[in-house]
């Protein structure tokens, strides 16, 4: 669930980049990185990598060595490898006769060992099992040993690489930026164009919230008030663009037609102000809350949310129920908005304990409905239920606007061990007892898809249903 970004053509690129990285750090706060051309040698690409959150580690001063308006950037959420190793931080690169190629990716590959064997057979060494490094090496093999163009090389690699991923590539010998999305469309990627002065700025991003940030910087507004036009990069699409000319794209022919992504993006991952098919995730999540009330009404005195993820659905639940929505759970500002879900296991419990506080005068003697976006491991929910009772709540009713997270995800989320999932193999009553609540209800799968107004077959929902979009063993 990393954040990837690439853009070209904006004269204030270096000044904007730290803000853009900060806007994507909810997708990964283990590390962040940037690649671009350097001022000392304009033909040379270099990288800047930092451990920790982008909002604390990236600033315009650190980007002074770069020049020009073409950059790629990344925020990392570790799903397979150690988050403490600088070697794992994106961007990754490969060296060829034509110069350096750099890459950032989001997602996970399923057939890593097979791909490593492919590289070993061709005497290509990689130093980690990081997906981006493997993809960089594979692309370089197609260019160096087979003489393919960048676009054709990426297409060949997408035919080899199984999994859910999206990536952005730039090279020293090519003015274009290349963006690609896995043939199933599991990991998100969006493309936008801006008019900046007399030239075009183009960008790709995991989420559209970054485009809203860019449009604040001297872009020409369209009649609808927006400063850009945007679209999704399609499943299996390879998009080639620069600040000049018309973007070109090609499609991997084995893509699954129509699939548009991971359903957990709508439930949890994406920022509420990002868009899916023209509609904000805030609106989708409020509808989830309304569907949740229709399925599971409850006698209570108030509705509250686990901030920030539970707020939209709690608003929807409160509107539908007629119950007051009160702020009864506060997020500790010192945690900086860190998500316990994406925090490494060693720090997860400590963060959950310090992240929230309860307003006693809001809950004392009250029957409280608590809405969170999801329950995956149960760490936060168990602590909050206990704390609500300690602060005088009469009853605590958990309402979750998605089905139980029963199954591992192998496509870019660190939930590969089912034993860590609180709902795996348990009944609803058993989960409720483990969390200590008076009642627990999850929104059903049909209600979820009614809320997001999409056909179920268009999404990967393996974590909720156990249905895999792939025909390979994992």
TrEMBL record:
Chain residues that bind [4Fe-4S] cluster = 262, 409, 460, 463
Which biological pathway? Purine metabolism; IMP biosynthesis via de novo pathway; N(1)-(5-phospho-D-ribosyl)glycinamide from 5-phospho-alpha-D-ribose 1-diphosphate: step 1/2
What enzyme category does the UniProt record give?
A: transferase
Q: Which InterPro entries match?
A: GATase_2_dom, Ntn_hydrolases_N, PRTase-like, PRTase_dom, PurF
Keyword terms, alphabetized: Glutamine amidotransferase, Glycosyltransferase, Iron, Iron-sulfur, Metal-binding, Purine biosynthesis, Transferase
- The residues covered by the Glutamine amidotransferase type-2 domain are 2-244
Q: State its cofactor.
A: [4Fe-4S] cluster
A GO MF annotation of the entry reads:
metal ion binding
Can you state which reaction this protein catalyses? 5-phospho-beta-D-ribosylamine + L-glutamate + diphosphate = 5-phospho-alpha-D-ribose 1-diphosphate + L-glutamine + H2O
Q: What is its EC number?
A: 2.4.2.14
Going by the entry's taxonomy, the superkingdom of the source organism is recorded as: Bacteria
Q: Does the keyword Metal-binding apply?
A: yes
> What positions does UniProt annotate as the active site of this protein?
2 (nucleophile)
Q: How is the cofactor bound?
A: Binds 1 [4Fe-4S] cluster per subunit.
Task: Give an example GO biological process.
Answer: 'de novo' IMP biosynthetic process
Q: Which family does it belong to?
A: In the C-terminal section; belongs to the purine/pyrimidine phosphoribosyltransferase family.
| Name of the protein | Amidophosphoribosyltransferase
